[in-house]
Amino acid sequence: MSHKATVAAGALALSSLLVLTACSGSEAPAEAANPDEVSGTVTFWPYPLGGVKDASWWQTYIDDFNETYPDVEIDLQMQAFAGREEALVTAISGGNEPDVVYFNPDFVPKYAAEDLLLPLDDLRDDWDQFHDSALQAMTYDGTLYSAPQLITAGNDFCNAVVLEAAGGVACPTTWDELLEIAPAVKESGNYVTNYYGTGTLNSTFYKYLWQAGGEVLNEDMTEAAFNGPEGVKALEYIKTLADNEWIPREEIATIPPFEQSQQGLGKVAYNGGGNIIANRDLHGADAIETVPTMKDVEQVASGTVGGWSIFNTTDAPAAAQAWVRYLTEADFMSKLLPEANYFSPRSDLTGLYADDPIMTAGEEAIPFVRTGVASPKAREIIDLLKPHIQRVLLEGADPQEALDAAAEEVNRIL
Known about the structure:
Layout: E1 40-45, H1 56-68, E2 72-76, H2 84-93, E3 100-103, H3 107-112, H4 132-137, E4 139-140, E5 143-144, E6 147-151, E7 156-159, H5 160-165, H6 175-187, H7 205-211, H8 229-243, H9 250-253, E8 270-272, H10 276-283, E9 288-290, E10 301-302, E11 305-310, H11 317-327, H12 330-340, H13 357-363, E12 369-370, H14 378-395, H15 399-413
Parallel strand pairs: 1-2, 1-3, 10-12
Antiparallel strand pairs: 3-11, 4-5, 6-11, 7-8, 7-9
């Protein structure tokens, strides 16, 4: 791979943003009318995806792709998630970055902001067949920079045994309904829900914030917005759960192994997404009652998206785009996703888990998935905000004062 861009790497620490500058980059080409005219080598970096762990799995589909694009070589280099970003930074600093790489949403703003990725808005003419939630997760500053390959969706559910122990209360679908059943659940010796305070805010505080109708940052991503009325409402709501011991206090401060958690012990009524398969395996299918995505002002489910980004330093942009188009066709997804155990980001590809009621129910949450904040500073914002939320939940700090203090710190880095 030769460069059409000069890439200078500054601090290489994972916690720091890369200082990268692309002096020029390949333009996104229109789809070639004649595949025989498309040639070149595409360095391809996939990672283990669920049950799809080995490079050998991909060969059948590379061969199939080459039937249409015989002059394109896919140089597959299987990567490990461990040390993932360090490996990518090292490759970039050495001028050896891949052409096509698997990204999650938090990677997209970081590299797009440094003008290192090809825009993909014109990659396909059927983006309208993809869920908006998947496309938005891979969009930065109004431009799509990663083609969605898969999506996860937090499937809201209850432990039916706990509900029965609380007098047969109903599994909640709104904030108010959850508060209504909380005293009865506590009286039965259980918890109404849980809150993993040391987990990512994307699936904890942010989810409550979004459900309340709020946003983490303002519209142009230049200032904190989480300290507005919606953020205060969300944090006060979580504080109410904590103050009344309706959630396990110890899990606000640490995340135990699942089997040792209150949920794993079968003592939590409602779960707002996550661990549903582990719950089914541990407690049995009869203990699982799925419900629609939780709502206050908005319905919002936690989840993430995986997709393919193309570095604009590629020597073979047409070939790279052809490969990514192939990977995001419904036909290929129908092969990959059931083996990897993920949902489809395409709204026209459903029913992959028709024999599994829990997975089928999970598909209904896909339109409500929000994955995080489309900012290059997303991880730093989480690191700054999380301790202030902990002070509220564990030390009784005032929610408004805590969020205002966090906002001052976040605004300084923005």
